[in-house]
Amino acid sequence: MSLNIVVLAKQVPDTHNVGADAMNADGTVNRAALPTVFNPEDLKALEMALRVKDSIKGAKVTVVTMGPPRAAEIIKDALSRGADDGFVLSDARFAGADTLATSYAISQAVKQLGQVDLIFGGRQAIDGDTAQVGPQVAEKLEIPQITYAEELMAIDNKSITIRRRLERGTEVVKAAMPVLVTVTSAGEDCRFPNAHRLIRQAKDEIRMINADSINADMDRLGLKGSPTKVKKIENVVLAHKESVVLEPTEAALNELSATLIKEHIL
Ligand SMILES: Cc1cc2nc3c(=O)[nH]c(=O)nc-3n(C[C@H](O)[C@H](O)[C@H](O)COP(=O)(O)OP(=O)(O)OC[C@H]3O[C@@H](n4cnc5c(N)ncnc54)[C@H](O)[C@@H]3O)c2cc1C
Which domains does the chain have, with CATH numbers? Predict the structure, then answer.
């Protein structure tokens, strides 16, 4: 038996290169003005999946993304780094999805792939930042999950052993397959694209999968299936007047404590 591995990857705005036109006047994100990148933790997830593939003969890595057709760029990137296959879930009916609708669409797509042994995703995406999609996909597929993964410790055909981050330390967890793993930024950096692969698949068309192909309840997709409504996005900049300079004296510290207690901060 060989392993079927899925990697969940999201194309996100490059939040390290935010220009003056990054926000619309109404406070929403001007996605057209932002360059896009492979979500950083998803690259770490891809590397972990590729390490499993390196260890288990015949293992296959399929990368799944939901987004506009342009998201095919990250599938091509993943293929050039060593993934075997990938597709974009792309359809106007997926648009406006919150994490509930996103994880529903992704889990339905994964179900169409037949037996899947391992699913890797990033812990969180740098635009939405909720860290909910991975765990929700596991819930919908009714499989266990290992979150906050940092290192692949061991792998065989039936189980995976992972070192995961806790608040104060780490723990090593062994889980039977199928299992979903979310990887943090402490994971190994992803290997570079391979030149031969880049050239070979430069002209390849990446498959676009629409909502009709995933056996989905249309009411659970996109905006229609999303109970979350983002009312307003505000860019909060702390003004200088909000900072207080303290003298290094006991009296100043006592005064600070009294103020914090009075303001219900402590
Ligand atoms: C400013 C802002 C605020 C938002 N607030 C909310 C909110 O409060 N509640 C809410 O439900 N939604 C919210 N959203 C929508 C949210 O971005 C989408 O639901 C998004 O598709 C998934 O959530 P996330 O980005 O938080 O992903 P996360 O849950 O942080 O992603 C975790 C991992 O899941 C996988 N993954 C996530 N999205 C995809 C994808 N499209 N394709 C493939 N794999 C994926 C990746 O492996 C990723 O690393 C918000 C979006 C923005 C821009």
Answer: 4-225 (3.40.50.620)
